Amino acid sequence: MSTTSSDVLNRGFASTLREDNWWLYPAIILFGLTSFLIYGFWSAWQADFYWYSAGQEGFGGYLAPFYSPLLFIKEGVEGAAPMNHAIFGSWPAWWPQWLPPSPSLLILAVPGIFRFTCYYYRKAYYRAFTGTPPACAVGALPRKGKAGYKGETGLMRIQNIHRYTMYFAMAYIVIFFYDAYLSFFRGGEFGVGVGSILLLGNPILLAAYAFGCHSIRHLFSGRMDCYSCSMSGRIAHKNGKVVTWLNQRHELFAWVSLIWIMVADFYVRMVSMGQIVDLNTWGG
Ligand code: FES
Description:
- The chain is built from ten helices and four strands; from the N terminus they run H-H-E-E-H-H-H-H-E-E-H-H-H-H.
- Helix content is about 50%, strand content about 5%.
- A two-stranded antiparallel sheet has the order 1-2. Strands 3-4 form a two-stranded antiparallel sheet.
- It is mainly alpha-helical.
- It has one domain (about 5-140, about 160-210, about 250-275).
- Strand 3 (about 185) and strand 4 (about 190) form a beta hairpin.
- The chain is globular, with a radius of gyration of 23 Å.
């Protein structure tokens, strides 16, 4: 009697008839997402050196993206933005003493939940972190006491909040474009620096990622029964083509935007700390 693929899958974790390097994809995801999480928490926990304007007052400067938007600012912190950049003013007294006064800790959950609930990332981290299964046609980690695959039922229905967090992501694109605009000025004078380029790339790539979102695709063009029956249908069809182009590259933009924001954040931090000299047209 010949061995079927389901016989092989039932032999346990990682058993497969596949002969390619199927393990490479989940291994890269595991490394990439773990690195991002470690860096993100480290950066958020620092609470300092998130701003750089070469000591100049007036309009302009670099703001590390993990700290944007600035809801509150703690005075007297090295590398902190001027107080007029805080939406609600100085640091609140209700903030727990055991937590660093980091503006990043106040806002990081919103983009974090958006990415965490993204349909692409879900596929990626279910495979890489929970191994259920780690790849197509590869044996899954045994789920003790659980009968079979249940999909995203029960508690996992929480993932449905993705369609709402998507609206917050749209707001972040606008905020990051404002930060990019700010980065092309120093002391009110227009110029360009390496930081400006990095901070401009950030919202462009975030937009490329977010506008390829499955929820956006549904919103823009997925609700129509007939595209050719009305003007709104024809517009939806045209919009849908753009969103579909981005949607087909959603994985690519998910990763490029993730790596870019990390590099931009690290760069601003290093420039603010004086570890990297920013090349720019302001000469300082
Ligand atoms: S599905 Fe990935 S951002 Fe919405």
